[in-house]
């Protein structure tokens, strides 16, 4: 049986530079690999990749890629101070979707939107 060891999401985006401005410059991800408009990023032990595509484009799998066809992706990023993080992101022009609030399961969380409108949960 095959043994799988690592996985990370690939996020289809409309503007790779805008996404880097969000994930790398605002959230602190480190760029670990780049090939054309495909960029891999790491935060702690977590990784994502962003790739710029346009409507009507097919992926390596042969299926159509439509970044604006809906938000089928959500990222959760942990921080020590949700309120301070949201204030900083708001000051940098990031849309806040849900203000910080304590949750019944013990986390404090809020939501912002990345440049393509994907919801990003900021939680502690």
From TrEMBL:
Organism domain of life: Bacteria
Domain spans labelled VOC: 5-124
Segments forming a coiled coil: none
Gene3D superfamilies: 2,3-Dihydroxybiphenyl 1,2-Dioxygenase, domain 1
PROSITE patterns: VOC
SUPFAM superfamilies listed in its UniProt record: Glyoxalase/Bleomycin resistance protein/Dihydroxybiphenyl dioxygenase (SSF54593)
A Pfam family assignment: Glyoxalase
InterPro entries: Glyas_Bleomycin-R_OHBP_Dase (IPR029068), Glyas_Fos-R_dOase_dom (IPR004360), GlyoxalaseI/FosfomycinResist (IPR050383), VOC_core (IPR037523)
Name of protein: VOC domain-containing protein
Organism the protein comes from: Actinoplanes missouriensis (strain ATCC 14538 / DSM 43046 / CBS 188.64 / JCM 3121 / NBRC 102363 / NCIMB 12654 / NRRL B-3342 / UNCC 431)
